[in-house]
Amino acid sequence: MQLVISGLAMGCVYGLIAMGFVLIYKATEAVNFAQGDMMMLGAFITLGLTNDQYMALPFWISVPIAISLMGCLGYLLDSLIIRRMFGQSQLAVVILTIALGFVARFLAGAIWGHDPQSLESPISGQYFRISDIVIGVPEIWIIGITISLTVVLFVFFAKTKLGVAMQAASQNQMAAYYMGIPVRRVNSLIWALSGIVAAIAGILFASKNAIDPGTGLLGIKAFAAAVIGGLGSLPGALLGGLLIGLIEPFAARYLEGDIARIMPYLVLVLILIFRPHGILSQVQKKKV
Amino acid sequence: MNPPILKIDNLESYYGPIMAIRGVSLIVEEGQIVTVLGANGAGKTTLLKTISGIMDPEKGTISFMGEKIQGKEPDKIVQKGITHVPEGREVFPILTVEENLRMGAYSRRDKENIHTDLDLVYDYFPILRKCKSQQAGTLSGGQQQMMAIGRGLMARPKIMLLDEPSLGLSPLLTRDIFLIIKRLNVEQGVTMILVEQNAKVALDVANYGYVMELGRIVMSDHSSKLQSSKDIQEFYLGQSEQASERGQKRWKQRKTWR
Ligand SMILES: Nc1ncnc2c1ncn2[C@@H]1O[C@H](COP(=O)(O)OP(=O)(O)O)[C@@H](O)[C@H]1O
Ligand SMILES: [Mg+2]
User: Fold this and answer.
1) What does pTM read for this prediction?
2) Over 90: is that where the pLDDT of A278 sits?
3) Residue B6: other Cβ atoms inside 10 A
4) CA separation for the pair A228, A82 (Å, rounded)
5) CA gap A84, A280 in Å, rounded
6) Residues with Cβ < 8 Å from A75, sequence gap 6 or more?
C-alpha cells in the first residue's frame, strides 16, 4: 500500500512532466527535451525564494511567483528562440532544446550549487498513520494537486475559447491562420502553459525529494511516459506517468537492481511494439 | 457610385524565386460577387492568400474600404472583415462541427451575437445542425464545404474569399452550394470573390468576372458578357464538361479514401 501511494505520487510528477512534453509536441511538433530541466528550474526557483539561506519568503508566496516566472520563461523561450527556428527541421528544434537543457543545468549549478538541497516546504516530511500504514502528507498533496490540475486543464481545453483555439492550431495550423487565430501567440502561450505545469511538477517533486541541478534528467522517464501515452494525448501522458511511477518501486522491491532500473524502459519498448501509437492515441485522419 | 470595397493594384507575390502573380489589378464593388476564373496553377489561390495576409506581396497595394491592408497579419485582416474560405476546406478534423464554427468567430469581440449567428449558419445549412456535435473529420466532402463556408460566415465578414468551393463535389452538390452562396450574397449582403475553375457555375452567380492565366489577368467583363464571349466559351465553358467530369472523378476518388 505504501508502495502504491508513493509510486502514484512519483507517477503524478512524471505524468505532469509528460503533459509538458505533449503540450509542446502538439504545438511545435517537436519534443522539448528541456522539459525535465524546466521542472528542475521551477523547483530551484521556489527553493531559492523560500529557503532561509536564500530569500526566506513564505512558501505560499514563492509558489505563485515561481509558477508565473516559469510561465513567462516558457513564453519567452518560444517567442524569442524557438520561433526563429521556424522552417528548420524538427530535429534542429530538438537539438536546440537539448542545448537549452544544458544551459538550465549549468545556470542552476552556478546559482544554487551542485549539492542536493531540500525545499523548506510546510508539507514536506509530515506523515500520518492509518492502522499500520504510514502515508506521507506530500504524497497526498501531490496526488490531489495533480488531479485538480488535470481537471483544470481538461476544462480549459474543452470549454474555453483559447483552449479550443490551441487544439485547433495543433490540428490544422494553416486553417487556424485563415480563421484569424494569432497562431504564433497561441503557440507561445502553450509554451507558457507547459512552463507552468513544469513548475508545479517541480514544486511537488521537491516537497518530497532533495533536488540538484541534475534532477531534470528524470525528464527522460517522463518522456518515456509521454510516448507510452501516445505523445499526442494529455490523459495518456498522465496514465503513462502513473504506470512508470508504479512500476519503479515494485521493480525495485522485487527484482534485481539493474533489471529494476531498466523496467520502465522495458515497458516502453513492449508498449511501442504492441501499441505503436501509445495507449491512448487518437489516430487522427490527416487530410491528404 | 460608391468607391469599391476592395481595390487591388499591380500586385506581385512570390514563392521564393517563383513569381506566382504578376501585376494583378482588380476591383470589387460592394454587394457584388466577383469571380476569378483560371486553370490550375494560374495563381488564383495565391491571389486570395495575398489578400487575406497569409502571404505578403512583394509589390502592389490592396485597399479595403479605402485602407491599405497589404502585408498585414491574417488575424488583423479577419478583424477588418475579410474572411478566406480556403481551397480544400481545411477543417479542424477532431473538433466538433460547432467548435469549428466557433473558431470562425475567434476574432470577434461581440460574444453576445455569436449564438444568433450560429443559428443563422444552421438555418442556411440545416444538415450542420444535425451533426453539430460530430467531429468535422467524419463529415462528407460536401458537408465539410458547407461547414467551411459557415465557419467563414461566423466572422461576420464584409467580404468573403471563396477558393474553389466546387472542388471535388458532385454537380448536384455544387449546384446546391452555389445557390446558398448566392442567397448569402443577396440576403446577408456579403460581398464575395469567388475563385473557380468551373466557369459555368461561377458565371451563373457572379456579377463580374476576371480571367487569370499564368499569374496575370487576361480578360475581365460582366458575367453575361463573359458567358457569351467566344474565348471563354472555347477555353472555359467548352472545357467545363471536361472539368466537371474531372471533378466527378476526384469526387469518386475521395469517396474511396474515406
Ligand atoms: N507552396 C508553393 N510553393 C511554390 N510554388 C507554389 C506554391 N503554391 C503554388 N505555387 C505555384 O504558384 C503558381 C500559382 O499557384 P496557385 O495560386 O495555387 O494557382 P491556382 O490556385 O490558380 O491553381 C503555380 O505555378 C504553382 O506551381
Ligand atoms: Mg488554387
Assistant:
1) 0.89
2) no
3) 23
4) 26
5) 32
6) A188, A189, A191, A192, A195
**Rounded average pLDDT over A88-117:** 93
For residue A284, which residues of chain B lie inside 8 Å, CB to CB? 93-94, 137
Q: Is A191 a residue whose pLDDT tops 70?
A: yes
Residues pairing with B19 in the sheet: B14
Using CA atoms, how far apart are residues A197 and A17, in angstroms rounded to an integer? 7
Instruction: List strand residue ranges (DSSP E) for B144-236, in order.
Output: 159-163, 191-196, 208-213, 216-222
Q: Which ligand is nearest the CA of B24, by number? A: 1
Of B76, B160, B163, B90, which Cα lies nearest the Cα of B124? Answer: B160
Q: Which residues of chain B have pLDDT under 50?
A: 239-245, 247-258
C-beta B38 within 6 A of ligand 1 = yes
Q: Rounded to an integer, what distance in angstroms lies between the CA atom of residue B139 and that of residue B173? A: 14
> Nearest bound ligand to CA B215?
1
- Answer yes or no: do B52 and A178 touch at CB < 8 A: yes
Give the least confident one: A76-80, A121-125, A186-190, A221-225: A121-125
- A165 near B CB under 8 A: yes
pLDDT tens digits, residue range A112-134? 999 999 999 888 778 888 888 88
Min distance A200 CA to chain B CA atoms (Å): 29
Q: What angle do CA B219, B85, B210 make, to 5 degrees?
A: 5
Give me the domains of chain B, ranges plus CATH numbers: 6-89+156-252 (3.40.50.300)
